[in-house]
Every structure is written in C-alpha cells, then in structure tokens.
Amino acid sequence: MHDAMLVSLFAYFFLMMAIGYYGYRNATSDVSEFMLGDRKLHPAIGALSAGASDMSGWMLMGLPGAIYLSGISAAWIAVGLVIGAYFNYLLVAPRLRIYTEMTDDAITIPDFFEKRFLDTSRSLRVLSSIVIIVFFTLYTSSGVVAGGKLFEASFGLDYEIGLFITASAVVAYTLFGGFLAVSITDFVQGCIMFVALVLVPSVAFIDLGGYNTISSTLISIDPEFLNWFSGVTLLGLLSSLSWGLGYFGQPHIIVRFMAIRTLGDIQKARHIGMSWMLVTVLGAVATGLVGLAYVTVRGGSLADSETIFIYLSQVLFHPYITGFLLAAILAAIMSTISSQLLVSSSSLTEDFYKSFIHRDASQRELVLVGRLSILGVALVAIALSFDRSNSILSLVSNAWAGFGAAFGPIILLSLYWRNMTRDGALAGMITGAVTVLVWIYAPIQIDGKNLTSYLYEIIPGFILSFIAAIVVSLFTSKPQACITDRFDKMRQFITEYVDKRTLRKSN
Q1: Which contacts of 84-87 are long-range, i.e. CB under 8 A and separated by 24 or more positions?
Q2: What sections of the protein cross the membrane (predicted)?
C-alpha cells in the first residue's frame, strides 16, 4: 500500500519540480519577474493561487479537526473567512492593483507603503518588513508542522524527517522558479484540493448510507453536535467571524492582486476564487462531520483529530487514489509555504538588502539574494517546527491576527483615505502588532484563562490600529500635494473604469 501511495506522491513532486523549472526558464531574469511575475498573472491562476496559498494545511487538517472535536459550531471561523475573502476581492484588489503600479511599480507591501507616503526616512519600509519576516516565519512553521504530521501519520516516518521532506520540496521549486512557478503550482494545487475535498466526504457519506445514519450517529455522540450555537458565546462568535478581518492584511494573498494582468481580470478572479472557496470550505466542514460518524460507526480510532482527512483517505480508497489525496494535503501545505517564503524573500531582498546594503545591486545579484533568503527563512521555520506539540490552527491564528491587525487597517486606509499620513500608518502598524503580541503573551488572566480564550486577538488589534492610524493622521501634517494628486488619479481611474463597464452592460 505504501509503495502505491509513494508513487502518487513522487509523481506529484515531479510535476512541481517541472513547473519550478518552467518558472526558472521564463520569469526569473529580474526582480520584478522573480517576485511578481511581471504583473502578467491570468485571473484563474491568480484566484486559485490566492485561495490555495490562503488555506494551507488548515483547510484539510486544521478545520476538519476542529469540526471533528467540537461540532458544527466550530465552522463559524469558515463563515467569517468566506465573508472576509469576498470583501477583500471587492475592496482591496482593484485599488491595490492600480495603485501599486502607479506608485513607481511597487512590488512588495513595504515598497508600496514607502512610495504611497513618500517616506524618505524608510521607517515604514523597515517596520513593515520586520512584521512580515517575524509573522511569516511563524506562519511558515505551521505549514512545516502539517507536513511532518502528514508523513508521520501516512507512512510511519519520523516527524522530523517529514519536516525536512516537506520543506525541501517546496524550497526547491520556489527558490528556482520564483513567483511564476509558485503561482502555477498553487493553481495546480488548488485544483487538487478542490477534487479531494469533494471526493473524500462524498465517498464517506455514501459509504455510511446517507444523511440519516450520519446525523443520528452524531446526535448520539452529542445531541448538540449539529447545533450551530452550541457552547457559542457572543464573544466566541465575534472571535470566529473576525477571522475575516485578517484578509485585508495578508501579504501572501494580496500580492496576487498586485500581479493580475488588468483591472478587468480582478472581477473574473473574484468569481473564480469565491466559487472555489465555497466548495472547498463546505468540503472541509463535511470531512470533519462525516469523519466522526465514520470512525464511530466503523469502530475506528484516531489519535489526532487533525488527521481525520488522512484517515478517511487511507480506509476508503485504493492506494493510488490515497496517494493522490495525500498529495492534496501536501499541495495545501506547500502552496502556502511557497507563497510565504517568496513574500519573506522579497522583503529581505528589496526592503533590506537593496535599500540598506547594496543600493546599486544588479538584477542578477538581487535574484540570488532572494533565493538565499528563501533558504534562510525555511531553515528557521524548520527549527521552530521541531516542537511537535504546536497546533496547526493555533500557529495559523497567531500569525493571521498579527498580519490582519498590523497591515489590514493601514491597507484599507491607504487605499480609501487621501489624507492618511506616514505617521498615521506607522502608529497604526505598531499599535496593531503590539496589541496582538500583548494579547497573546501577556501574563494576564481572567478566571484562570488568558485573554485569547475570551476574544480573538485580531479584534482589539484591528480596532486599536484603525483608531491610532486615524487619530495620528489628523494631528500630523497633511500629505504633500503630489501624494493626494496621485491618490485622486487612482480613484478617478477606477471610477472611469466602473462607469465604462456600466455603460457597456446597459447597451
């Protein structure tokens, strides 16, 4: 059985390496190509790339595991994410695509911040780069942890060996193929995830005899298992839904918007991306529910709830199909790791090396530094992943909140408020990041529980960041005329585009 599964996985690895080679040959001649694909991303590739890099191992392991343990009430996180993703496409994607190109072709988020506010002190670039590197290293480690668990649960390999296999494979095609390779592999990985999250719960559903058997089994385990509000407090509901706020500040997701070919393609990407997300999220929730019923009815056992997808893949399918399904988990993990490595690398290269070490570095040198940065961040993430007690969901939630609170309000305000200032952006970014860290790590408890047990840290972080950015902007010098003029041109461009589309539809 293991041999057949390994054949499928090796075929998947070979495909990823082939795409990496294609990217190496076609889009790594300069930094713009290596980091942003020269802004020529197809909307379908951009949409599935954003979705796959967003969901990671959380989609196939973290969410089904949470549903398996807590019931349908754990799915409120998924509801919040779907809402957040939609508004991210609607509010951020069009303006960020245009504005980053208008601001002297900004290719990273720190680069955009600096050029948006004409920050000659470079403090915005440095601070945002530090936030990216710190939180992405943590975020990347969550993917490596998922890879270690996958190889341990599926093949009986040591957890540590699984870490290195996962990291080595994703580093190889990311390091050589750059943004184009990462985006195309994400597209393929997104397709694999889609098929897997439809196939696994559907086959398990049929095998158990349908809805009546599953619902009666789950109710016999816990009468409240299918109750959306079971054990859910108001603060708990707000915490789950607030995951959607994180989308506005996730660099590895919004960088896809910057790379899509045209403004018109953004709408196409939104339709494709949201359709993909709805199906895959429903599949992940169904996997947790049907998985618990299957384990109960068939008398199975599961040591780690986050491996329910792996368990169903092994007991329901032929080994070759199982290998394909395990490749779906690996695809989810690798798509996110590769995107995070690339964004971290671009920040280290553009925002540190080029800005402070060697301003006149050649394109060839910068691409080399980018590749070395990918390797360095990966090694640190592997080191953090050796603590196998880390929950995938908890690692992701901490990093997600950090980005959402530090960058989310600043991205939104910089795209919609012409009078926002550099000092306001700095204040908001610092306030958001510090609030999240304090909320997680401060030795403050209420009835023996830490603050995160009551309220997800992104809520206070996002709110305080928003307030700080607005208040400080109001009490500092107004932006220069050239900044507000460029903002007005961006807004006018989008307004004219929308008017033209409306006119074409009416005719």
Answers
A1: 84/243, 84/244, 84/245, 84/246, 84/247, 84/248, 85/54, 85/244, 85/247, 85/273, 85/274, 85/277, 86/270, 86/274, 87/244, 87/247, 87/248
A2: 6-24, 44-61, 67-92, 124-141, 161-180, 187-206, 226-248, 276-297, 317-345, 366-386, 392-417, 424-442, 454-476
